[in-house]
Structures are given as structure tokens and as C-alpha cells.
């Protein structure tokens, strides 16, 4: 019983331990995952017949220029795709666009972290 109690206390302490701060590379990868998730959502909007001008209007409210640039680029690319292609396999289309823009973002040179809310 004492061993079980000691083990549970150790697990609790490890769980409460302070996390190490993220490196700039880890922060950028987290940002890029958010960009990819935003691309997936934009594809979902397109598949649900949200008009491009509404998407652009919403994106224009983004204050961070880096993020706004990514989002406007995603909107342009997603809305350029043929409707039949994006509706053939809706989940596959969403996952493909998410992965594509996550990778594009990671490959983008950057000097500072954008100010963003994780998506």
C-alpha cells in the first residue's frame, strides 16, 4: 500500500512539473499546424458553399500580416480548385489541403513568430 501511495505521489509530481519552453522551431511548427488546420476549415467552408468574397471579408479582419498572407493565399488556392474535385472525396480533400499548407508553412523562411491564436 505504501509503495502504491509513493508511486501515485511521484506520478502527480511529474505531471505537475514545469514544462520546458518551446524552441523557436517548435513554436513555428505549432503555428504551421494552426495554418494547416485553418486551410482545412477553409476547404470545409468551400465544400459547404461559402462564397469566396465572404471568406476574404472574414480573413481581412486578421491583424497579423503573416497570418493574413497565409490565409488569403489558402483562400485563393482553395477557391481555384474545381468543385467536382473537392466534392469527390470531401474528407480526403480537406486532409490533403491541411497537409499541403502545413508543409508550405514549415518551409517558409521566418525571422519572428507571428502573433496568432492557436486554431
TrEMBL record:
It comes from the Bacteria. This is Lipoprotein. It comes from Acinetobacter amyesii.
